[in-house]
Amino acid sequence: MDAELVELSVLGKIVPSQKEMDFLDGVASRLIEKVRGYFEEKRLDVDVRLAGSYAKGSYLTDQDFDLFMLFPPEMPREEMTEIGLQAGKDIINGELVYSEHPYTTGFFEGVEVDMVPCYHLASTEHIQTAVDRTPFHTEYINSHLDDYQKDQVRLLKKFMKGIGAYGAEQDSRGFSGYMCEILIVKYGSFRKVLEAATQWKKGETIVIEKEGPHFKSALVVYDPVDRNRNAASAVHEDTFDLFV
Questions:
Q1: 164-174 pLDDT tens trace
Q2: Tens digit of pLDDT for each residue in 82-117?
Q3: Three-state SS for 133?
Q4: Where is the domain boundary, 97, 114, 142?
Q5: What residues make up the domain containing 179?
Q6: What is the CATH number of the domain that holds 188?
Q7: Which of 85, 117, 142 is the last residue of a domain?
Q8: Both ends of the chain: CA-CA distance in Å?
Q9: Is residue 114 classed as helix, strand or coil in its secondary structure?
Q10: CA gap 43, 238 in Å, rounded
Q11: How many domains is the chain built from?
């Protein structure tokens, strides 16, 4: 069986069915409507958007939602965080998750949801919290990947999961979903990413839009929406070696 047939076979197993997609689309629409209504009742100027792999169309099965609440940049951070966390508690009965930027996690109509407060910015030049870039990531990927390439992202994610290199969390120290997406932006397909990776050396530097400051890391990928960030900073040397 040639590589293309193998890819098609794998895609048949990892791409959500039309029934699953229709279900998620319905839940997502009702969730956004509910959150928008919540802030309208409180007369708060908050934009509501979905982010993450669902919003970018590169999700696998067992999908959850990342819902971002974008607050005016002039609002004090403490107030923004307090209002956003309370919204998560009120709407999805969310539990508080402590991280660099706290958020709530819960369920809406059976789908797991993370509700994340952040600032509504015109660009990434004046980032105030670590998650302020995320809406820009969604916009960038949706404007740079077509449906074929989004399926290529799915293949790369599945491959990364299969070898234990997926996830940017502390216990994974690997490739995030966003990293998989921008690698497809750079190289065009799953197979071309693998071919390129065979030539990577420790400290490999990849520029997609603009090069930024020097980073010392196993892999450096300048974030296309913010050249001052290494999108591959989570990738540990062991994970890098595993992939290449």
A1: 999 877 767 89
A2: 999 999 999 999 999 987 789 999 999 999 999 999
A3: coil
A4: 142
A5: 145-243
A6: 1.10.1410.30
A7: 142
A8: 24
A9: strand
A10: 50
A11: 2
